[in-house]
Write a structure and sequence with these properties.
This protein is an alpha/beta fold. Helices cover 36% and strands 19% of the residues. It binds adenosine-5'-triphosphate and magnesium ion.
């Protein structure tokens, strides 16, 4: 999957060199952070499009905010907005549990995309404190154990405070993408180090980011390609979502010992 193009090379030579990660054993979890308007959601849409189009992962979406940018997904069984977002996380966690219990190792990756995690948590807390704890613990467990089962989380949050994750599970994101201008405090929090003290992101535009990828040499600066028509991109995502099995169907397939869970 292409995260974006190397910003430095682009600025110097106008050549697009992709910065990529391959979903699977080493790269399951993605953290997208950045202030409002920095380009998280639009970039996430492009990432989901690639995962589905390249058959790298099935994708399920929990969007409590019910963002305008995902309007074309409304009605898809793989997309849940508002209150239904809780059920989507629970269902995905159920699938994770079934896969683990049955000691399966699906060939295909399964990803849950969670929009605006902080808002989701605050909303849950406002409804019932237990709900927030439950959400954090389900997400924490998938972050801790999902990688080996080809199960991952792509999570969007404006500020990735440690308190938004259960017991150190924030450290489990193998790919951290920090969009737009970011405070020095956020950098350090996310594991960016020394060379960034000068905070190069201070003049980043929407869709420009710093990326930290486990086992890759250094921090990379990227530009997500300009997406001219957000609506068309979202409709493409919808097209693929409609073709994939629902979580309920996958759970049933696991129970019945079918191979559908493994194959595309
Ligand atoms: N790759 C891109 N191509 C074109 N426009 C972009 C791109 N990334 C961001 N933008 C512009 O920036 C705007 C804000 O992007 P986006 O909605 O993704 O931000 P966000 O970080 O999700 O904000 P919030 O936290 O408020 O949800 C978009 O509506 C679009 O106009
Ligand atoms: Mg957004």
């Amino acid at each position: 999957m292409i995260l974006g193009y190397d910003r430095e090379i682009w600025k110097e030579f106008t050549v697009k060199v992709p910065v990529t990660v391959t979903l699977g054993k080493n790269y399951s979890h993605f953290l997208l952070t950045g202030k409002s308007g920095s380009g998280k959601s639009l970039s996430a849409n492009w990432y989901m499009y690639q995962m589905l189009h390249n058959r790298e992962s099935r994708v399920y979406i929990a969007d409590y905010k019910a963002g305008e940018e995902y309007e074309a997904l409304e009605g898809s069984p793989s997309y849940a907005s508002g209150e239904d977002a809780f059920q989507m996380v629970k269902d995905f966690y159920g699938l994770f549990q079934e896969i683990r219990k049955n000691r399966l190792h699906p060939q295909i990756h399964h990803t849950i995309y969670i929009e605006e995690w902080y808002g989701f948590l605050s909303y849950a807390e406002g409804k019932d404190k237990k709900l927030k704890t439950e959400l954090m613990s389900m997400v924490g467990e998938i972050l801790a154990v999902g990688r080996g089962l080809n199960i991952g989380i792509m999570l969007c949050v404006q500020r990735a405070d440690a308190s938004h994750f259960s017991a150190g599970t924030r450290e489990q994101f193998q790919t951290v993408i920090c969009f737009g201008r970011c405070s020095a405090e956020q950098f350090r929090m996310l594991g960016f180090h020394g060379e960034l003290e000068s905070n190069p992101s201070s003049n980043y535009k929407a869709g420009e980011a710093l990326v930290l990828i486990d086992c890759q040499d250094s921090v990379r600066e990227i530009i997500v390609p300009f997406i001219e028509n957000e609506d068309v991109l979202c409709k493409q995502v919808r097209h693929y979502l409609d073709k994939q099995p629902t979580i309920a169907e996958l759970i049933q397939a696991v129970a019945e010992g079918e191979s559908r869970i493994s194959s595309v």
